[in-house]
Amino acid sequence: MSLVSCGLVVYKVVYKAKIIPKYTSEKKINKFFKKQAATQDNLVFLSDSAFVQKIEEPGWGFEGWKLYNDIGQRLRMEIDSLACFGNVEGFFRDFKIENTLSDSSQNLSLEFFNNQKLQNSSLSSQLDHNSDYKYDYTLVLYWSKWRGRFSERILDLEKLFVLNNPELRIRVIKVNMDFRDDMKDTWIDKMDIWSREVTRKKNDKDEANGLN
After folding, report:
1. Residue 4 in domain
2. Separation in Å, CA 172 to CA 37, 113, 128, 162
């Protein structure tokens, strides 16, 4: 069980997320993606090195999103808290540029997947920073099959943002963060990853409650 700001939830039952993540096949990942995603394009599978680089970033979480404007600067909510998913849904449903802050230190051109080899090489041209001007916004979604309903809701953000802003040119890039079969032969320790994820969430909760 996990105590979060949105209430007491039974993690496994309510959110259908595995307590201990399992390695899964790319076929199963694709099946989950096709069932949940609003569109079937722009799915990125990270190489093992890019995966490790991403999860070693400070404050990393397995379900998340990032929004960028047409010059590659990251936008975030004025009240930048993802503790309750309702804040995110409201933000995308009522999206307005005046409701955001521009973080010039976070630029799309600096994102890890622009500088790392992708398994889906056909996507490389779409990630070219020089093409950003073709879009008003770029939404990057991070998800994984083993996160269950957490990831279902993350993928739902695409529908909220795109369908509620039909006048905008929006590019969506969906980055899969699963433990694939081919990672069994790497030094990636899924138990260690999971332990650090639990610790991060506990620290975030303590900080939100003023315990740190």
Report:
1. no
2. 11, 14, 14, 9
